[in-house]
Amino acid sequence: MVRDAARAWADAELRPHVRAMDDEGRTRPEVIRGLFEHGFMGMEIPEERGGSGLNFTSACLVVEELSRVDPSVSILVDIHNTLTNNAVRFWGSEGLQEKWLPRLAADCVSSFALSEAGSGTDAFAMKTTATASSDRSYYTLNGEKLWISNSREAGVFLVFANADPSKGHRGITAFMVDATSEGVRVGKPEKKLGLRASSTCPVVFDDVEVDAADVLGEVGLGYKYCINILNEGRIGIASQQIGIAKGCFDIAMPYMNDRTQFGTKIADFQGMEHQYAQIATEIHAAEVMTYNACRMKEAGIPFVKEASMAKLYASQVAERAASKSIEWLGGVGFTQELLAEKFFRDCKVGSIYEGTSNIQLQTIAKRIKEDYR
Fold this sequence. Notes:
Number of strands: 10
Structural class: alpha+beta
Helix content: 40-55%
Strand order of the largest sheet: 1-4-5-8
Low-confidence stretches: none
């Protein structure tokens, strides 16, 4: 039911905007309104807080279906649901939940502000600081974040800053920062290879005063929250990559079933059959891995290894599916007449953000060694 609803909305309301949004480099306001109106921005937020009250798997299914049409929009939904919303649900105080969850479900886009110029994969090398006032009633944030998704549309930032640099990563603390706060400045969007409708900007925090009540969880535990929430987020990225791969099939298969060369449908040549059968099998394998990770997460079973495997493999499959679909489409696949070239551009970041493929391999290897000790 959730999948069907997301697919219907994406086909009817999102698809007509995809090419224009990619050209414009922005997500149109009417698309964002539609996401909120259909409950896609509060998937796991309880109904009493204004959300849909569904589960993690449902959120991933929505991400997959939206990605099948426009991965730029799916990443906005994924970050909002699997990172910010869940972080507030898991570790936010009662007051913080009451303040933000209804808005996050209704009309407020969120942004996850972690990365900096010198802290990408080495996330805990961040230089952004949070200095406590003498009475510890508020903190003053100073620093610059880079490559921050959803930043142009955000009404709130989940910001990670170090409240005690002398403690290293154990000083890192999470803050919910209203985007209208004095001293918050969102810079010019990056010009990217893909996901162009998704805003990716630098965000400067210049003497931004944040009330102590807006600390997410406990001071100094931000690094733990970050690790835990990104483990979940990797499953969301795997869902996005599966959607991209399926979106490629949605374009290529009808074309190959329709186009005839040498008196034979392209899809009927044995050489072609073997190629798309192989990719379809890989998509199915990625899907099984991803939703098994969802199952484990919801059952309270350790899932870090499986999440990394799902993200690693799904990103690889998406790249192969996108590349092959262009070959199957021939010359028209290399043009902007179809969206195959967009999927080809959009999928590449799947091996980079929320943990590079090498980081996934390291995580998997670490867990395997633990299993055999």
